[in-house]
Amino acid sequence: MRRMTAAFNGLADEGRQTSVLLALHHALEMLLKAALRERRVEVFDRDTARSIGFEKCLRLARQHLGLSDERLGLLRAIDAMRNDEQHWLATIDEGLLYVHTRAALTLFDEVLGEVFEERLADHLPERVLPISSRPIDDVHVLIDEQYSQIRDLLQPGRRRRAEARARLRGLLAMEGHVSEEARVSERDVDRVERAAREGDALEHVFPRLQGLGATFDGEGPTVRVHFTKRQGAPVHFVPADDPRDSAAVREIDLQRKYYIPPFDLAERLGLTRPRATALRRALRIDEDDDCVHVFTFGSQRHPRYSDNALRRMTDALKSIDMDEVWRGHGPGRRRG
Predict the structure, then answer these.
(1) Which residues contact 141 (CB under 8 A, 6 or more apart)?
(2) Is the pLDDT of residue 45 over 90?
(3) Could you tell me how far CA 180 lies from the centroid of its own chain?
(4) SS (HEC) of 270-326
């Protein structure tokens, strides 16, 4: 975290955003893994004998640290930004970079307090914080400014297409706030670039970002930033065979979202397999497309469950009577 703040406030521009995102991402990952170990959660993969990856770390953090969707969205967005900075080329507006680093510091401080009962100020001098000479109070203004710059860079004769695409990658990475699929592909960039060249409005090209907001509390070194999700984002789904072009279409790897086999789901819930099946029936989990997907390989069918299913069932166990669920939905019982 010290390296991140030193790079952010440094006067040198070359490699600055890369240094900030690499150090920030690593600091957050190490904090989450330390917090999971504090809660006695294993962070090493027994099969590979290596530490778990960031994606699995987020899943465990949702389950064992109680991180909200807004917090997880911030972490996914930073992960996507760091990934593009490390493995390709990306540029993010300076104001948006500031908002994300301050929000990340807020999250770091809150998790440190919730799990270890410590404060970030106990480890860093107050002056070691990202500072901005530009007043910021609306994240949508920053997003709109970056998109306007992209459209300007793509104007005929400018010859700045590479810079425009780097900025597009930065905006696409921000969709991690509102989507579990934050990976940015070249097809995504191509599609959005084409829409920007044709003059499509921001809300049509990035509909998911219209549901993103941020709150700012405090002033100076005590400012705290939280990203929020606003209701009613104009998101629509387009079938794969739809001939119409849609700039905001994102390819989704279903095996990343639906990754929990039924037996693993039961184990995570601390239930026997039959009782886990009864609970799924009671909650109608297998009827919710957001909770389950059946993968078909030839004549074999393999249901896999998402974090949404695990969360719904975990929450239900806090108030539901499993004996009653078993009587009404166990094997051989008529479904209620």
Answers:
(1) none
(2) no
(3) 5
(4) CCCHHHHHHHHHHHCHHHCCCCEEEEEECCEEEEEECHHHHHHHHHHHCCCCHHHHH
Q: What is the pLDDT of residues 272-317, one digit of tens each?
A: 999 999 999 999 999 998 899 988 877 788 899 988 899 899 999 9
φ and ψ at residue 44, rounded to 5 degrees: -115, 140
Of 144, 112, 142, 134, give the one whose Cα is nearest residue 30: 112
In the numeric block, the tokens 């592909």 are attached to 185
Grouping H, G, I as helix, E, B as strand and the rest as coil, residue 269 is: helix
Structure tokens at 197: 């060249």
Residue (of 67, 136, 125) closest to 101 by Cα position: 136
User: Do the beta carbons of residue 170 and residue 194 sit within 8 Å?
Assistant: no
Q: Is the pLDDT of residue 322 over 80?
A: yes
Query: What is the Cα gyration radius of the chain?
Result: 22
pLDDT per position as a tens digit, 135-185:
566 777 788 888 888 888 988 888 888 888 888 888 888 877 776 666 677
Q: Which residues pair with 103 in a beta bridge?
A: none
∠ CA 168-171-175, nearest 5°, is: 135
Coil/strand/helix, residue 261: coil
- Structure-model confidence comparison of residues 220 and 71, the more confident one: 71
Interatomic CA distance for residues 265 and 9, integer angstroms: 45
Query: Which SS3 state, helix, strand or coil, does residue 229 take?
Result: strand
Beta bridge partners of residue 51, listed in sequence order: 44
